[in-house]
C-alpha cells in the first residue's frame, strides 16, 4: 500500500515485512544466520530428526526444519526483498507461546517488537505452505511458532558483542537462563542494545534497547504456568527512496533525501520510534497422556511514530522535489548550470534546515479569534515549516486456546478458539516548530478551495483556529476498533502408506472508526462513531501424503478461504471522514500445492509446485494529484491475482564435512483483472471519477526467479565455512495505476512508441550476490580449568562480497502522471538499492 500523509507529499514504499524463513539453528551457522537476520524467524532443527524413518511403519514428513529449500532461501534471497511464493506478509501467520501476533489492521507481523533478542528466540517451529500443524489453522504461506517460555530455554549464561556496517554498527547482548529447578521454577533474563551514530546510508542512525523476562512455574506433571514480558524501544533515522536523476547527481545509489545539515551536523527529518511492550501468560494443561490443552493471553500496548515535514503556504522543502531537478528546466544552459550547482553544493541536494528556520524567523503574524475565542489575538512567529510525528498508539488483546488429542493409533485431533481485539489511535503531533513560536491547526487546501466558507479550513470545528505547540495534536485524530473471533478444528489420519488431514475454520470480524475531531469539510461524518462493519468468513484445508518409503514422499494439499478486508483498505479517507469503499466484500483465496520430498542421511531434496488465486482484494492509495491540486483517495476494488510456480531445494553431503546446498524459486505472479477505482478528493465527498485500471497481466513487484548454490564445510574441530552464489531475475517495479487508465493514453496513437512507454511496466536488471559465512566454537575447558563448560564462539559473515552496488532491491512508480503532456519522465520512479559489501561479526562467551 502506498500512503502519503497530508502535508508531506512523499510516496513511501509498500510495507513488506519479511515472511517467515528457516535456517539451521542448532548449528554454529544457524547461530550466524540468526544473528545476521536478527529478528527474522529461523527454524529449530534437531540433528536427531535427520534419521530416516522405519521401513516397517513409515514415518510422516517432518516439519520445515528439515526443508532444504527454506534452509537455502531463508537468508540468501534477502538482498532483493524476496517474498516466498510472491505472497504479501499478511499471508503468513506468527504465534508466540500460543497466541497470534499479527496486527489486525493489516495482517502484518510486527517482528520489531522482539528485535535484538536472538538468544531467547531459538526455540521455534515453522510450517511451510498448506501443511497441517498442531498450533493453529495457519495461513496459506505458512506459520512460525515461537516458544520463549523460560523452562524451554537452554540453561546457560551468554555474553555477546557484535559489530556490523548495516543499520546498526554495534550490539551487546546478555542472557541468563536458570533452567527448571527442583521447586518447579525457571527464569530467563535477556537484554541487548544495538546502536550506530550513522548507518550504512548517510543521515541514518540507530538506537535500540531490548529487554526480556520469562518466568515459569511447573506445579506438577500436568500444569505449567508461564509469563513472558518483552519491551524493545527503538529509534532510527530512516532512508528514503529517490529518483535516478538525483542518485546520479549525488553519484551515490544510497542517496538519502531525508536529511540535511544543521549547524554542521546531519539531521534526519524522518525518524521512526517504536515502544510497544508485550506481555504473554500461557497455561499448559496435560489432561492425560493423550490430551493436552494450551491456553494463552497477550496484551500489547504502546505507540510507534514516524516524523516528517509539514508546511503551510511555503515552498516544498524536499530536496528531490521534481521542480528542483535540472530535468525540469526547459532552457538547456540553465539546466546545465543547475546541474553543476547541485553537484557542487550538498545543501542543494539535501534538506536545507537553515532555510526552514530563517523562513520561520521572519514569519511574524497575528491570529485572530485564536483557539475559537472571539477577540483572542495571538501574535508571534507563525511557523511555516514544522516537524510533525505521525503516531499510531495501540492497545491489543489476544486470547487463544488449543486442544491436542491423540484419539487412536491413527487419528490425531486438534481444535482451538481465539479472540483478538485491537484499538489503534491515529493522530499527528508537533515535534519541532523549527524556530517558530506556534503553528495553526488548519487545512490549507480547504482554505484555498473554499475561501468563502469560514469553517472549511478547520481541522477541528470543536476547537477552531487552534494554536498548537510542541507536543500538541494537530491534523487528523481518530480511532479504529477491530475484533476477530475464530474457532477451528483439524483431524489428521495416519496409516502405513498414506496420511491425510482435513481442517476447517469459521471466523467473525468487525471494525469501525471513531473520529475525535470534527472536520470542517465533513461536519456530519467525521466526528464520533461510524457504522460497524461485520464479516463472517471460513477456511477449508486438506491434504494427503503418500509415503513411498521412509525417505521418499509425495504430497498434495489444498485450501479455500475467505478473508475480511483489512481496515486500511476499507475506509477511503479515515483521516477526515468515515466513508468506505462502495462494495465491501471478503477476499477469496484458492490455493494448492504438490510435491516430492526426500529425507535421507546424506541427501535431502524438496520439489514443490504451487498455484494460488486471489480475488476481490481491496486497496486505498492516497497521494497528491496535480490535476486536482489536492490529495486524492484512489479506492481500488476487484483486485485479482494469480501466483504459480515451483520451489526446489537440495542439501547433499558430498565428502567428510563437505556438503552442497542449492535452492531455486521460479514463479509467475500476475494481476489478472481489470481493477475498478473510485476517485475522491480529500476536500470533497463527491466522486470525481470512476476509472477502470487496465492492470491485467501486470507483474507483482517481487523477484519471481531466485537461485542460490553454495558449499558448506563443517570441520570436526568445530569450525565451519559456507559460501553461496545467488542470482535473481524477473524483477519488476511496482506500477502506478493512474498510468494504466484510459485518460493516461487519451489522444495517443497505439502505434506511437509513447503508448507502450506509458503502459509498460519496468523490468529490473538481472542481479547476483556472493555471500560467505564462517565461525569457530572453542571449548575453553580444554585450555583453562573451569567449573562449567565454557565456549568462546566467533562468527563472521560477509554479504555481497563482489560489492555489487547496482542491485535495485525495491522501488515504485510515483503516484503522479503528466496527463497534459504525457511526459513519462516528469515523475520518474523511485528506487532503493541493496547494500554493497557488508558484514556482521560477533564474539560470544557461553557457559
Task: Provide keyphrases for this structure.
mainly beta, 8 helices, 47% strand, 27-stranded antiparallel beta sheet, 847 residues, globular, 8% helix
The dominant shape is globular
Q: Please report the total strand number as a whole number.
A: 40
Helix content: under 10%
Structural class: mainly beta
What oligomeric state do these chains adopt?
Answer: single chain
Tally of helical runs: 8
Q: Main sheet, how many strands, which sense, barrel?
A: 27 strands, antiparallel
Give the amount of beta strand, in percent: over 45%
Radius of gyration: 28 Å
Mean pLDDT reading:
89
Q: Tell me the span between the first and last alpha carbons.
A: 46 Å
Poorly predicted sequence stretches spanning 5 or more consecutive residues: 1-59
